[in-house]
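Customer escalation, tier 2.

The customer says the design service returned an amino acid string that "doesn't look like it belongs to this structure." They asked us to rerun it and document both sides in this ticket. The original structure tokens are below, unchanged.
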């Protein structure tokens, strides 16, 4: 007998779900029976992914309260509920000396990486609390927040803030059965890889980064999706406040 899909009956919002790690999460969640709303800035990529996976799509700037309010309304109107929030959308600036980081660079990583989590919880926690409904928030953080590299100081700091806030809220909202966890990829092959490396995203340049990963490769969307699926499933209903480093041993 085939196993029951692990996310059957659950509704998820996945930010940045049109590409990279987010797209991998969407594919896995749908495969496991979840109903998914893809939130992304790119309407073209978002609509294409939604059509491919049979999902809902909403254009969303994750730093805007009104966009989160619209995402919640979309979930409730379309599916009658919300269960899982994957805060995957992220940004970085090009790898460079810290004294060369501009205020625009700083605002970008703090807004997209940190303010987005603030906004998602500010808008969505009241829904879970008022409905007395268990909830699951998963932040896609980074090994940079645990074991930072030089030249990406404020990106690293933004991801450390995400991990810390995740742990704090896990303690605060545990009594309400609302779980908070993070997943931390090491560098992989996504649209932002060249920024982390600070050079063209070639096999040779990636090898320098991958040489410090014991398992010898970067994170894939499938790796991150598998970790997120576990945390979102009932198998993890006693797991909260953790940061799973999906990094091939990089942080050891």
């Amino acid at each position: 007998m085939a196993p029951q899909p692990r996310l059957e009956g659950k509704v998820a919002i996945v930010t940045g779900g049109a590409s990279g790690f987010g797209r991998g999460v969407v594919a896995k969640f749908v495969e496991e029976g979840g109903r998914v709303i893809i939130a992304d800035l790119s309407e073209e990529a978002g609509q294409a992914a939604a059509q491919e996976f049979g999902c809902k799509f909403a254009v969303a700037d994750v730093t805007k309260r009104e966009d989160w309010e619209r995402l919640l309304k979309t979930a409730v109107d379309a599916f009658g509920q919300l269960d899982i929030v994957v805060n995957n959308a992220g940004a970085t600036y090009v790898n460079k000396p810290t004294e060369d980081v501009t205020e625009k660079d700083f605002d970008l990583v703090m807004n997209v990486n940190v303010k987005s989590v603030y906004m998602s919880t500010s808008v969505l926690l009241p829904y879970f609390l008022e409905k007395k409904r268990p909830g699951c928030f998963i932040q896609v953080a980074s090994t940079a927040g645990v074991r930072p590299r030089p030249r990406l100081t404020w990106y690293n700091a933004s991801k450390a803030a995400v991990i810390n806030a995740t742990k704090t809220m896990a303690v605060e909202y545990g009594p309400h059965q609302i779980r908070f966890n993070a997943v931390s990829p090491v560098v992989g092959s996504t649209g932002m890889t060249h920024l982390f490396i600070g050079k063209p995203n070639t096999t040779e340049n990636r090898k320098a980064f991958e040489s410090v990963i014991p398992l010898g490769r970067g994170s894939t969307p499938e790796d991150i999706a598998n970790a997120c699926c576990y945390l979102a499933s009932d198998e993890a209903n006693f797991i909260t406040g953790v940061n799973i480093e999906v990094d091939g041993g990089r942080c050891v």
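Tier 2 assessment: The sequence is consistent with the input. The helical segments are 20-31, 43-53, 65-79, 103-131, 153-173, 193-197, 203-210, 221-232. The chain has a mean pLDDT of 94. Sent an explanation to the customer and offered a walkthrough call.
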